[in-house]
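Progress narrative, work stream C.
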Amino acid sequence: MAIFDRDPWWQPRSALYMLKTALNPVRINYFRERLHGRQGGTALEVGCGGGILSEEIAALGFTTTGIDPSAAALQVAADHAKAGGLSIGYLQAVGENLPFPDNSFDVAFCCDVLEHVQDQTRTVAEIARVLKPGGIFCYDTINRTLASWLVAIGVLQKWKRWAVMPPELHTWNKFIKPEELKMLLEKSHLGWREHRGIKPATSPIRTLSYLRRRARGEWNYKDLALRLQLIEGRCTKVMYMGYAVKDTMPLRLERKGV
């Protein structure tokens, strides 16, 4: 996807900057709580892009590795980490074929990525493979509903009155329903634990007014990012996040036919 190659990621003039200011706070707080104080282990981010979430993961105390198919994005991530004095390993790879041995990581993250991969089943299976038994898989993605089409496709991409993202960024039929994802997790011996919704902190009318001001040129992306905050909620109709835990005895379960 061209936006992931060409956009400056960490710069306020970029649409991707909103990942840092709007999306990162809600999801990293959620994951921190579900990790139950785990730190000092190894963590993998699948689809790390420019490293916006990888640096947050490293700040939690994990020895962090990020993979992404975009060499340009990985260079941005590596340069930013180096400038900040962070030691994060970045490798060019895809989620469907992770270049790591079995049972390599204590935690794996795949955030805002499952709706972009070529093979969701294979990606989840690979994440499960490289997780240690008892390891935690943290993720967020977009549901496939009418509401998600209106918000993620219509408002944010398609309709110029409000759009902030390129029209080709997301494809609605690649969004994944929570029940579908739960099935993929179970198939890969990842025990699903919870799903929680992600939504704007402001009302729909106020949120649309913010987007409109950016579209009219009254605000830049930084102005929008400072005001558009996302929060955790119960509704999963548009975006949701969750976590699963890798079975400690998957081979025994297979022999029993479970």
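Work stream C, second folded protein:
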Amino acid sequence: MFSIKKLGAIGRTYRHINRYHRILRVLFKYGFEDLVEMLHIDQYLESGLQMINRKPREQIEKLSRPERLRLAFEELGPTFIKLGQLLSTRPDFIPPAYLDELAKLQDDVPPFSFAEVEEIFLDETGRKPSELFYRIEEEPVAAASIGQVHRATLKDGQDVVVKVQRPDIEQLIAVDLEILAHLASLMEIYVEEMQGHRPTSVVEEFARTISNEIDYTVEISHIQRFARQFEDNETIYVPRVFRELSSERILTMENIKGIKASRVDTLRQQGVDLSLVAERGTNLIMEQIFVHGFFHADPHPGNIFILPDNVICFIDFGMMGRLNRQNREDFTDLLLNIIARNESKVTDGVLKLTNHYAEVDKEALSRDLSAMLDRYLYLPLKELEAGRIFQNLMELVSQHKIYFKPNLYLMMKSLSTAEAVGQMLDPELELIRLAEPFMRKVKSDRMRPGRIADETGETTSQYLKLIRELPDELRSILGQIRKGQMKIEFE
């Protein structure tokens, strides 16, 4: 994972000062001079801002502020595109207009040359692509901010796709993360409304996410774990990966020949049962979240292929979410209590699943949650939209300066996306109805005798460990007191 160094005088290295000035020029170009001035950035730059043109172009001034932020992020490249995509899942952190705009971020960038692809292969494998593949197309079929994809054929005739990481991307991201960490720390100092949001924590979370995305061996592990989860499920197909032709910067996997879920008219023309596919896809996401606790965090229609016999295939496993058993149980309780409109238990459930850095006014939180639940009070189950419930919930808790844990934001995003894709294929799809059996199973598993025995055994072993270790700990403390190395204060 990237190690984010603290930046004092940011100009201590040439790469930082150049990149920082580039970022500031783009912010000024798109009309964010007020933000730059609010953060007092000139105090930290050894080279001042006087030479930077601060006036945005006339056509840019006509755009809304969210549109300008999206364009700025696209111009700043891979790190900022990925950051914007993460922020688009965080209604607790930015207003709805920005969420909608950042969700439109385009990850399409010009490709890099095949000569550079060959150089990366030599660095990673010691061999050229022509030595490893029967055939590889020099023109990529897709180019994105992190890497690009080439079609190829193995020597045994197997068709594959080869994802190759963009040259020098790791160094660029490392510098950008340090600058973002610096900007986030300034926000916590100078922007009062940001202090409770802890922007530095968001940057740290982003660093963890993007670290996984640029190490393709992590994605390979994700694919293989995903395949094990569904090895006995005939409704899903998981692409085969070729580890011997992969590395941190190269990923070789089976070329999936299906129809993307986004091509609804083509699916219909090919006789695909759209209702069945919508239900299967939604159930697969439910199983990932509620049963396995390991789920695809970006199941948008471009990442889902439909194969013959209505079989579903996910691609792009760079960003995956994880939920431990306790999180799954607590979230299940919360969602069931929202459906049942059980106000007091909803409040307790929210507090279990959130981080709060100051004292929470539980009465005010309960009152606002009650008002939110009133919106759903008389709606039939089929009209309850999970995506809308989650967005309202995230916005509400952020107003009380409490925040869901990062993995829960990913999970709610995944469920909301699955609902949207499902309803695109079948407008009658009801995610809440499909989720109920999975949630009931989570609750029944909690009461399994074997589960209770496991937890009792775990608790007993923790007590035995404490009893074994306590005498040594006490001896150490008493020894420090005798030597005058420990001071005890009473208040």
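The chain has four domains: 10-106+184-212, 113-166+215-255, 260-447, 458-491. No further action is required on this item.
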